[in-house]
Amino acid sequence: MLTKLSSPDIKARAEFAEALARDAGRAAAAFRKNASAETLVIENKGHQDFVTIADKQTEETIRTALAKAFPEDGFMGEETGGAVNTDGVWVVDPIDGTTNFLRGFRHWGVSIAFVVGDHIEIGVIYDATRDKVFTATRGGGAFSDGTPIHASTLTDPDKAIAILGHSRRTDFDIYLGVLKDLYARGIDYRRMGAAAIGLIRVADGTADLYYESHLNSWDMLAGALIAHEAGAAVLMPSIADILRDGGPIVANAAGLNDEFSFLHKQLASSSQQL
């Protein structure tokens, strides 16, 4: 069993995860370059929900490396599952945006979070579009390849850009309602198909909102911490609820809180500020 983790313990894990995400992401990108979409798919879990050879291989690489470096830590991966260890668990999406990866769209990445109790201690995301690694530790700020990043300070909704996701686990009318509310406020929007990447776009100020009505833990935890540490307002269910059931998330530029209050109200009864 893990004892209470010290700052050096967290730092060592963060540095290890940063290098691991970069190496694993670059290996996945190289693998995709030399493979066809037809040969990549090994499983279809549902509508537009694929698993590729690269997903399996990347998760196994990450899982093996973490187990060797930190054998007392728990592990939860999208493809191989795992038990939640409240003393410390790595939560991993080997390729977030698998459909994009499969079809050759740029927006995908590797997402690695480390959770202790009810806190996300580490968030690391490899962004394949930019070949950069975004990182954060709780209370330590957010960075892109070592350079500090900050959420947008925009306050004018007429200049704002939102990134949305949609989950088939929730009613499509919820998504349509959000689109109508954004349109009424003069806010433009995009849909990228990769929550982790959407969240770091909020973290670095490229976008002013990321919203999705349901995500799994591996899709959101790393990006949620990075966005929060960059100064964005982040609202989502408790860590325990997210690890068990997943849930919704709102991450937005703090200066636009009033404009996005309709989303905050949707989450208010079951969620908390990160």
Give a written overview of the molecule.
- With 274 residues, this protein is of the alpha+beta class.
- The protein folds into two domains: 7-148, Fructose-1,6-Bisphosphatase, Chain A, domain 1 (2-Layer Sandwich); 157-273, 3-Layer(aba) Sandwich (D-Maltodextrin-Binding Protein, domain 2).
- The chain contains nine helices and 15 strands.
- It has helices spanning 7-33, 37-40, 53-69, 98-103, 172-184, 195-203, 217-229, 239-245, 261-267; strands at residues 41-46, 49-52, 74-77, 89-96, 109-116, 119-127, 132-137, 142-144, 147-148, 161-164, 188-191, 209-215, 233-236, 247-252, 272-273.
- Strands 3-4-5-6-7-8-9 form a seven-stranded mixed β-sheet, with helices on both faces. The protein has a six-stranded mixed β-sheet with strand order 11-10-12-14-13-15, sandwiched between helices.
- Helix 6 packs parallel to helix 7 (217-229).
- The longest helix is centred in the first third of the chain and has 27 residues, at 7-33.
- The protein is globular.
| CATH H-level homologous superfamily name of the largest domain | Fructose-1,6-Bisphosphatase, subunit A, domain 1
Largest sheet: 7 strands, mixed
What distance lies between the first and last C-alpha atoms, to the nearest angstrom? Answer: 27 Å
* CATH overall fold name of the largest domain: Fructose-1,6-Bisphosphatase, Chain A, domain 1
Q: How many discrete structural domains?
A: 2
Put simply, the count of helices is: 9
- CA radius of gyration is 18 Å
- Order of helix and strand elements from N to C terminus: HHEEHEEHEEEEEEHEHEHEHEHE
| Number of beta-strand segments | 15
